[in-house]
Specification:
This protein is an alpha/beta fold. Strand 7 and strand 8 form a beta hairpin. The mean pLDDT is 94.
């Protein structure tokens, strides 16, 4: 399997970096091919500007969706973005690893999504019909590829539970799993969630490494999150609203967008 890590942490001495090294070594020892986009080491440009679109007339109004579509179609994206898109085409599995900062991913990683997932490449709403609304949410360029997140957090697991002060971790990362990974077509695997990384306890790291390496061993067989696909009958078109009664009686909030076995 071809595995691509998109990694975001500024310090090579970090808990995260140690996990990355362990995971990459383990995958390679098991015969997988691995590439790593280490965003901080790459000095990744984390904001969208007119300079991202080489065919944009400088100083004129920037409409990002239109400009990114045109730049992609005319091969006028910057080389750093093109290289990341090529890595995504190469990969069978993409792993996004990052610390949870202010209840989401670091800005540099969000900037990677903003710049790499251009219109025309990662998404294309396309022509609407009575039964379809473009190739997205389960269809699209990433269809057939898998992805998941490895996320570290300083707080305790109970702080991120349904009744915890921070809210349910699965609610917090729904916009990432569903809105950023499933949207362009990835089959999304459950995340690896690691808590209490700020405790400085060696036992926390040891357990985290065991969990990550176990996921690397299970990477080809683990059951994905069964998100409902947009164009397969569960959503009314063109309203894009889940049809009444599709979910079961125990499902609420974001959970209604996951099919239960």
């Amino acid at each position: 399997m071809k595995v691509l890590f998109i990694f975001a942490h500024p310090d090579k001495r970090s808990f995260n970096y140690s996990l990355l090294d362990a995971a990459v070594s383990h995958l390679k020892s098991n015969g997988h091919e691995v590439q790593v986009s280490d965003l901080y080491r790459m000095n990744w440009k984390g904001i969208v500007t007119e300079d991202d679109f080489l065919n944009h007339e400088k100083g004129t109004r920037l409409k990002v969706v239109e400009s990114s579509t045109k730049a992609y179609q005319e091969n006028q994206l910057t080389q750093d973005v093109v290289l990341e898109q090529e890595k995504l085409k190469w990969a069978d599995m993409v792993i996004f690893q990052f610390p949870l900062w202010w209840f989401t991913m670091p800005a540099i990683l969000k900037g990677w999504f903003d710049r790499v997932f251009t219109s025309g490449y990662a998404y294309n709403v396309g022509t609407h019909t009575d039964t379809r609304y473009g190739d997205r949410y389960g269809e699209g360029i990433m269809a057939g590829k898998k992805a998941f997140c490895i996320i570290t957090a300083g707080g305790r697991e109970e702080h991120f539970s349904e009744r915890g002060i921070n809210g349910d971790i699965n609610d917090l990362i729904f916009p990432i799993n569903h809105g950023m990974l499933f949207y362009p077509g990835f089959t999304v695997l459950p995340p690896v969630l690691i808590f209490r990384v700020d405790s400085r306890r060696e036992t926390v790291y040891q357990q985290a490494e065991r969990d990550v390496l176990q996921r690397m061993d299970d990477i080809e067989t683990i059951k994905p999150i069964n998100y409902r696909k947009q164009n397969f009958g569960d959503y009314a078109i063109p309203e894009l609203r889940l049809k009444d009664g599709v979910e079961n009686s125990t499902q609420t909030h974001f959970d209604i967008h996951i099919k239960q076995d």
